[in-house]
Write a structure and sequence with these properties.
With about 300 residues, this protein is mainly beta. The chain has one domain. Helix content is about 5%, strand content about 50%. The chain is globular and about 75 Å long.
């Protein structure tokens, strides 16, 4: 079996943990670096006797973690408001219920998805997935989304590798030729921007016989959204990052990426710098500026708006 022969299918599920049976024709995601890692708890036997030799152990709770990267694609047709990664955004703590095409954080009603991962002729069907996504924008490179998903445990099955699938998105969107703003009117020279909701994931324990592997659900219990950017060093009279840091001033960050037909507008309405350090980028002085995303009224610290250009 070849490491290049991996295919990821993803589909929203309802109710939680049910398999909606994704297909290559409707649910393919052009992912890379796909990795499936079963997490099985090994229990040591505690009893002692007259020998130092360990007793046989037992297995306890089980769940599965799936990680992968995704070069952001836009919707090919329709209204350009539903990117191919929509099921994953909805399963990593976002909702688009407030306005079509605008994804915002949510506090209740978390959705979940099913992942089917083909490792050539081995198929993992992972239900009940929720997780995290980190957005990474680097000048001149495709916008990269890095996902860490957790789901309920099921053993993989032998299957027939898919021979056909449908591309649901455009070519990957590249981070360049668009406007980056810090504090509304400032346009610093920035090489990279990264951010994420940083959800806290928990595996809900259960001893009920309906939950055969000791876990009833993967739940999102908290979040601490943060990110970073690295502007070129500039006089404080032009852009005063240090005062913003030492005074805990809340500054908006926005950025737009586009493939010429559709676009993603990222809005972080209130960010607070968490530390302040200088660095070097190819002989040019820069600042490394990590930040926290904070709320205005709640569930609004990050906005991802997909639309036609």
């Amino acid at each position: 079996m070849l490491s290049e022969h991996k295919i990821l299918l993803v589909k929203i599920e309802s109710p939680y943990g049910s398999d909606p049976t994704p297909t290559g024709a409707a649910n393919f995601l052009a992912a890379s670096n796909i990795s499936v890692r079963p997490n099985l708890t090994y229990n040591d036997t505690a009893a002692t006797d007259g020998s130092l030799s360990p007793r046989a152990g037992t297995l306890g709770q089980k769940y599965i973690e799936v990680t992968f990267d995704y070069e952001l694609q836009m919707e090919i047709a329709s209204d350009y408001k539903t990117p191919p990664c929509d099921p994953l955004l909805l399963s990593t703590g976002y909702t688009d219920s407030v306005a079509d095409g605008i994804y915002l954080p949510r506090t209740t009603g978390f959705q979940s998805c099913t992942l089917w991962v083909y490792e050539e002729d081995i198929l993992w069907k992972v239900n009940g997935c929720r997780g995290n996504v980190d957005f990474n924008f680097a000048a001149g490179k495709p916008v990269m989304l890095s996902f860490t998903m957790q789901g309920l445990y099921t053993k993989p099955v032998d299957s027939t590798f898919l021979t056909s699938w449908t591309e649901l998105g455009s070519s990957p969107v590249v981070a360049m030729n668009q406007s980056f703003d810090w504090d509304t009117s400032n346009h610093p020279v920035v090489e990279s921007l990264a951010f994420g909701l940083k959800n806290t994931l928990a595996q809900n324990p259960s001893l009920d016989d309906a939950d055969t592997h000791g876990i009833s659900e993967i739940v999102i219990t908290n979040r601490m959204p943060e990110g970073s950017f690295n502007p070129e060093m500039i006089k404080a009279g032009t852009i005063d990052y240090l005062t913003a840091y030492e005074s805990v001033l809340q500054k908006p960050i926005s950025y737009v990426v586009s493939d010429g037909t559709s676009k993603l507008t990222v809005s972080l309405p209130k960010t607070e710098l968490m530390s302040f350090a200088s660095g070097d980028r190819g002989g040019t002085l820069i600042y490394d500026l990590p930040f926290r995303c904070v709320r205005t009224t709640g569930d609004d610290e990050i906005s991802l708006a997909f639309a036609a250009v």
